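Tokens in:
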């Protein structure tokens, strides 16, 4: 029970699966583009200073959203945009040593 409303698990699961199925069908037809606006509204990395560790070496810059192909847009200090397809991203503020 949430907020005083009893929810039937089967109904909730059916609604969730229906939503996922429609989203998956749209993704198959149109790719990621239709989802990018909603993603941008929820992008926790956007505008954050990050370092991405890749096999080719680490890159630091500012997270600048996601390309329609799903790669991370990393704005480098010189203004260029690098597409990141794989690697470990670390948010700079989270990497700082704890005070004291």
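Residues out:
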């Amino acid at each position: 029970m949430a907020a005083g409303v009893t929810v039937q698990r089967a109904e909730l699961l059916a609604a969730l699966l229906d939503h996922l199925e429609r989203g998956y069908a749209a993704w198959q037809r149109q790719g990621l583009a239709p989802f990018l606006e909603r993603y941008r509204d929820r992008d926790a990395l956007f505008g954050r200073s990050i370092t991405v560790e890749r096999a080719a070496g680490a890159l630091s810059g500012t997270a600048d959203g996601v390309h329609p192909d799903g790669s991370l847009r990393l704005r480098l200090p010189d203004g260029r945009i690098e597409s990141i397809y794989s690697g470990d991203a670390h948010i700079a503020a989270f990497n700082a040593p704890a005070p004291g």
